[in-house]
Design goal:
- The protein is built from four helices and two strands; from the N terminus they run H-E-E-H-H-H.
- Helix 1 runs antiparallel to helix 4 and helix 2 runs antiparallel to helix 3.
Length: about 120
């Protein structure tokens, strides 16, 4: 098979599989997140990635020796709320992965297979 055709073939299938994976992890926006989400749907993986970043930044407040004051309380509260939401989203992700275990595993296998061929 021609290299260009092979690359196009693999790219097309990988895009299809990545979209299917994204679909699996996209759910109706839970009530807990409606105040921060504009859309009716949310992608759990993307939300967890955002929460991990925010947690890493907010967690710096816990490293300070001055664990009091208005700023400390504000960011500690934000961090506590964020961690609660992150835990909730992680539990939803676990449920999704149990429900779609075979498809997720097969999608990853096929993405890796197509990637190796490129």
């Amino acid at each position: 098979m021609d290299d260009v055709l092979l690359r196009e073939f693999c790219t097309e299938h990988m895009a299809f599989l990545q979209n299917k994976l994204k679909e699996i992890y996209t759910i109706d926006t839970p009530e807990l997140l409606k105040e921060e989400e504009d859309g009716e749907k949310v992608n759990i993986n993307e939300k967890l990635s955002t929460y991990r970043f925010m947690e890493a930044v907010y967690a710096n407040i816990e490293q300070t020796e001055e664990q009091e004051g208005e700023i400390y309380e504000r960011y500690q509260t934000l961090l506590d709320n964020l961690r609660s939401k992150k835990q909730y989203i992680s539990e939803l992700k676990d449920e999704i992965e149990k429900k779609h275990e075979a498809d997720i595993r097969n999608i990853k296998i096929m993405i890796n297979a197509f990637h190796k061929e490129m």
